[in-house]
Amino acid sequence: MSKARRYIMAGGTFACALGIGFFMQAQAPSRPVTAMQSGLAPVLDKPVEISQIELTSAAPTPPVAIPGPVALPTAPVTLAVAEEAVVPKALPQEEAAPTFTCEYEMDAALRKGAMVELAVSAPCRINERFTVHHNGMMFNAVTDSAGQSMLEVPALSESAVFIASFADGEGALATANVDTLKLYDRFVVQWSGGADSLHMHALEYGADFGDAGHIWAASAQDKARSVAGEGGFLTRLGTPSTDQGLMAEVYTFPTGTATRAGDVTLRVEAEVSDANCGRDIEAQTIATGDAGLTVQDIVLAMPDCDAVGEFLVLKNLFNDLKIARN
To answer: What is the Cα gyration radius of the chain?
Structure first.
């Protein structure tokens, strides 16, 4: 039996008892009260007998209208878990994360004086050093803020191949057909280290150091002079501000179109500096000719540092030119 039903039954029983007691008092003969004591109930002469008591219970009455059950939806409910899942034989592979690619390009264009203009493009290589290779000649160059570089290089072969290589081995290649090279003689000195460690000097037509015919880095002359057959010019390659970079100097003389006969004396000069004193300088010379390229390796032992400011002149690295008038 629930707690609510017990409370209702107890209340009903108590109400019946009160009703019976009231009824019995109404049926009993009236008697005068002989004595009253303060706080005491009246005393009956004899006990009252109670009979024919019928126990009842107050059961709760259900509400008149009971809400009926809610109708289920007419559409059948399909449980997703009950469906059979088809497992593929080969699970899909994880997609590779996108990577940034870099396009390396180099174009070669023929210019006057058997020169080749190189246009290097590497947009992802901003302000980065790279090395140009051409027939054994090597020197450094640097891209700009857009990953571009423009430079003019003396060709050392008619079927010229140029390679631009970055530190990680990536780079580009370009070729050019330099059919005018046979009109020129070229002499190269290249080294690694300080920008001013070595210098090429050409003394044209009996000139001495400091004369008008003295061609070197401080008086390089223009290639237009050589195109006209008047004399040679010097090209300096490399990046002077780069530590331990590859540098090169190339002297070009128009042997096939020279307007004067005479001799050209070639010298290589080494300046003793704080950067190279007391150590060896590794260098190389390259010369063009009818027999092809002539290459010579050099190891130059520099004097001690108390000789800083002095110069060493190397006279026999190249054969002097004997120019015939054309």
So the answer is: 57
Query: Where do the domains of the chain lie?
Result: 103-181, 184-326
How would you list the strands of the sheet with 105-111, edge to edge?
A: 105-111, 115-121, 148-154
Contact 225, 290 (CB under 8 A): no
User: What's the angle, vertex CA 82, arms to CA 80 and CA 88, rounded to 5?
Assistant: 80
Structural contact between residues 20 and 50, judged by C-beta atoms closer than 8 angstroms: yes
The alpha helices in the chain, defined as continuous H runs, are 3-27, 223-227
Assigned fold of 103-181? Immunoglobulin-like (2.60.40)
pTM: 0.69
Write the single-letter amino acid at 225: R
C-alpha dihedral sign at 270, 276, 277, 278: negative
C-alpha triplet 164, 167, 171: angle, nearest 5° = 30
Q: How far apart are CA 118 and CA 312, in angstroms?
A: 34
- CA–CA separation, 111 and 127 (whole Å): 26
Closest CA to 227 of 266, 206, 254, 207: 254
Sheet holding 171-177, edge to edge: 137-142, 129-134, 159-165, 171-177
Query: What is the chain's pLDDT, residue by residue, as a tens digit (326 residues)?
Result: 444 445 544 455 444 444 444 444 444 444 444 444 444 445 555 555 555 555 555 555 555 555 666 666 666 656 555 555 565 566 666 665 555 578 999 999 999 999 999 999 999 999 999 999 999 999 999 999 999 999 999 999 999 999 999 999 999 999 999 999 999 999 999 998 777 889 999 999 999 999 999 999 999 999 999 999 999 999 999 987 766 789 999 999 999 999 999 999 999 999 898 888 898 889 999 999 887 899 999 998 999 999 999 999 988 899 999 998 77
Would you state the structure tokens that stand for residue 34, as one six-digit string?
A: 């002989």
